[in-house]
Amino acid sequence: MNLSVSRQISIRGISGSPGICIGKAYLVDKEGVNLIKRYPISDAQISKEIDRFKQAVSKAKNDYAKIIESIDKTIEDNLDILETHMALFEDKMLYGRTIEAITTDKINAEWALRKVSRRAKDMFQQIDDPYLKARVNDIDQVTDKIMSSLFGAEDKKISDINKRVILVAQDLSPAEASQIQLERIKGFVTDRGGKDSHTSIVAKSLKIPSVLGLGKAMVNVKNDDILIVDGSDGLLIINPDEDTLFQYEERLTKFEAYRAGLERESHLPSVTKDGVVLNLMANIELVEEVVAAKDYGAKDIGLFRTEFLYLDLRRFPTEDELFCRYKELVELMLPHSVTIRTLDINGDKVNPYLSVIEEDNPSLGLRAVRFCLENEPVFVTQLKAILRAAAIGNIKLLIPMISCVEEIIQVKQALGKAIHELEQEKKIFNKDIHLGVMIEVPSAAIMADHLAEHVDFFSIGTNDLIQYALAIDRRNPQVAHLYQALNPAVLRMIKMTCDAAKKKGIEIVMCGEMAGDPINIPVLIGLGLTHLSMNSASIPVVKNMIRNIDSRSAENSMEKIMGLNTVKEITEYIINEYKDILPFQGTDESL
Ligand code: PEP
Ligand code: MG
User: CB of 230 closer than 6 A to ligand 1?
Assistant: First the structure.
């Protein structure tokens, strides 16, 4: 008889990226910051509490001093920020008032600091001056730093983690996720985050399993707990029983064998059974991903998201810095093409140093091309760097979040300005560059026939198109089950866009995550799409699907699908029609 008590807990979240991993938990959040408790202290404890606070500040300052010593002094902005923070540590506003609050309210240091910091932030928020408003972020970061010291938390930088662990975090920003060191991190889980959020996109490209939107992982997991992350099924299992562990070890072995089989075939031609050739391209965020993209069999780079350099630097890069990156990328890809998408900042890729205005609905706010058109020097700088790199390799220029014809006209004016400046500066560049727009806002899909008059190609961004068409925040786990690529409304918008491109004879690409999910491939082939750009890790599985499909039967299926009313009907129809070739995702019931 087995008398041991099971400690196994299962929490369901949202699949961030497929696959299974088993390993020890490593909590990376600013521990405790979200779990701050208020507790009273006696008169006798006041001076001890103040000492504890002072020690925490001094530890935080020491850590900062070390960072200041080690950073590249040529990046002045970084230094300025750190020095501002150094001064804030002992500023009366935070330091003095927290000590006051401990003494007068007789409360613990954490609570006092939180109260004082909130007040200071409110005060700065009221001010109209954008520079002073930006101090809110400085206060936040300094507060977090002191808070971490108060909790005795180590300052953990993701890139510094040197154990084979599974990260557990409240949330990871796309930039933080991109710091993950593949050889060390087995997978990650977060309490926040939704389907096709940028964090999940980064996880897919790293090819590590992840589950997002778990809600209560941080409170249930302790460091070193054994975890199973089932990224395919969106499941986290904490401290699994022996049976579960055994079952998942078997599943993992099968999944790895399956994936290895697919990868071995990743260089076979991407062609349907009846000979239709599809161009499979990679979506990348960093130049470093090119090698993996080629390994997975990508021909071109169908989407280079350029915002990560801006996020990493925490300031606007110069034209030369951008040019060097783009040059490196096109040279690596020669003779194949690279589609460079201009800055898609804000939405869920917010850099506190760039966005001083707090927006209630950032996804509907000053994002992407809207931000660029409002900040013309930033935009023109990037366009100049792209045009210069276009003299070296095959570059296509892609503009995100276009919602009307006027915007594309304004983009062309900015492009004219960039060309004019480059001519004046006598720099080498190439202005014969293909100009395309992302179709990711419903108004753009509806106006696709008009937009087609102004551009050389369309790239359908389903990640946002689904979000905006169905009014589902792609980061919100509460509504993730409603975020559906196969929703008939989404399919109609994609069809409208394909029809408009076909009529005008311009190229059309799909670069949203929809293109990387095998279940959607019959639909995309049925719609006549032949250029698909995706997370490079998805290329082998998508290629395998393509090689087993007949394009004429996909066209027939598509006609039937367009007559169906619900996602359920559409999904069931596809599963039924293509059950013999749909891939194994690691959650197969037969296992
Ligand atoms: C999209 O919206 O589909 C897309 C590819 O862009 P991103 O995911 O960067 O918003
Ligand atoms: Mg998008």
Answer: no
